[in-house]
Design a protein that fits this description.
The protein has about 350 residues and is an alpha/beta fold. The chain has 12 helices and 12 strands. About 40% of the residues lie in helices and about 15% in strands. Helix 1 crosses helix 12 and helix 4 crosses helix 11. It is globular and about 55 Å long. The structure holds nicotinamide-adenine-dinucleotide. Nicotinamide-adenine-dinucleotide binds next to helix 4 and helix 5.
Length: about 350
């Protein structure tokens, strides 16, 4: 196993488990980065990969991000992630996720799954028929279901806090925000931003959804490959990882970046480049924790929706704390957040 970790820094993962099942076509990997704070908790991605190595790399990188995210969100869970490699043999989705549920069950609670890109509440229900180690269920007793609206709320409060702290503006009225990707999170984020008086510039590779945003939010649109470079106050990447890199950074005009996409930086040095360019990057694993807060609290079954909302809103205070740490340590925000989160990878009780 190579030693390259999140952001290209050397790191360790506790374990990697894999399954390959002819009957259902399931090919899946569960990467567990850390269980120092508790069982590894992180979603299941259902995606096309060029090959198995690419899937393993993605699972490991995402698992490490989950360790940092869960730690900063003060959750009693470690970091893990599952990926299911899409292939044409997977003709029965119910059978696929049912078999994946048995795989999760075989890990005996060291990993808890939930939705991620490409998976749905129905998939979680199929998993739940096989194992209790799953969240994001519509049928949850107290509170639960698709975590995306809480992710969007967390991104919104992070932007609101960042705008106050970094851009020194009192409110969001008239602020121009460029949103890349109008999926489950991006769409809800646009709704919240529009409601707060922001002017939106949006792009999605699906032109129909972009057209709908024009109609519903009075947004302007641009081509998907131009959205990162718009004349906006804030950029919110809500589609893919790796969008902040040596090619894109010199062309970015926004002064604050905060979005939902996991692993937005291609490497930690891109965080340094943003800092040098005077662009304040609020790290994804701090900003997009609303969904995992939702999934964890559903899994624990103790809190109601209002309490979960209040917990998600604490992301705004964490942005304040990060800004204070950055000023004190004279570090790029990406480095300050990374060090802060890693210092919390210790048992919670
Ligand atoms: P989604 O699949 O519902 O939406 C992604 C959207 O991005 C789609 O509408 C897609 O058409 C669009 N898109 C893809 N490539 C694009 C491009 N090049 N330019 C513009 N648009 C493009 O996913 P989601 O659940 O909204 O998640 C978005 C991101 O946030 C992902 O990176 C995900 O890992 C991350 N995230 C999601 C959650 C959650 O609760 N859903 C939690 C944490 C992090």
């Amino acid at each position: 196993m190579d030693a390259e970790g999140f952001f290209g820094l050397p790191t360790d993962h506790e374990s990697l488990a894999a399954v390959s099942d002819r009957a259902s076509g399931l090919e899946a990997i569960v990467a567990i980065h850390s269980t120092a704070r508790g069982p590894a908790f992180g979603g299941c991605r259902y995606w096309h990969y060029e090959n198995r190595d690419a899937a393993i790399r993605d699972a490991r990188r995402l698992a490490e991000g989950m360790s940092l995210k869960n730690a900063l969100a003060d959750l009693p869970f470690g970091g893990g992630k599952a990926v299911i490699i899409r292939n044409p043999r997977q003709t029965d989705r119910q059978a696929l996720f049912s078999r994946f549920g048995r795989f999760v069950e075989s890990l005996e609670g060291r990993y808890v799954t939930a939705e991620d890109v490409g998976t749905t509440e129905a998939d979680m229900a199929a998993i739940a028929a096989q194992t209790p180690y799953v969240s994001g269920l519509k049928t949850a007793k107290t509170y639960g279901g698709n975590p995306s609206p809480k992710t969007a709320l967390g991104v919104f409060v992070a932007i609101r806090s960042g705008v106050r702290q970094v851009l020194n503006r009192r409110d969001l009225d008239g602020l121009v925000v460029a949103v890349q990707g109008l999926g489950s999170v991006g769409w809800d984020l646009c709704r919240l931003l529009a409601g707060a008086g922001c002017k939106l510039i949006v792009a999605d590779i699906n032109p129909a959804v972009a057209a709908k945003a024009v109609e519903q939010f009075g947004a302007n649109t641009c081509e998907p490959d131009a959205i990162l470079f718009q004349d906006a106050d804030v950029l919110a990447p809500c589609a893919l990882g790796g969008v902040l890199n040596v090619d894109s950074i010199p062309k970015i005009r926004a002064k604050l970046i905060a979005g939902a996409a996991n692993n937005q930086l291609q490497s930690i040095t891109d965080g340094d480049s943003l800092h040098k360019a005077g662009i304040y990057y609020l790290p994804d694993f701090l900003v997009n924790a609303g969904g995992i807060v939702s999934a964890v609290r559903e899994y624990q079954g103790k809190l109601g929706e209002q309490q979960v909302i209040e917990e998600v809103e604490r992301i705004g205070q964490r942005v304040e704390e990060l800004v204070a740490r950055v000023a004190r340590l004279d570090l790029a925000p990406a480095r300050a957040a990374d060090a802060w989160a890693r210092s919390l990878l210790v048992p919670t009780r």
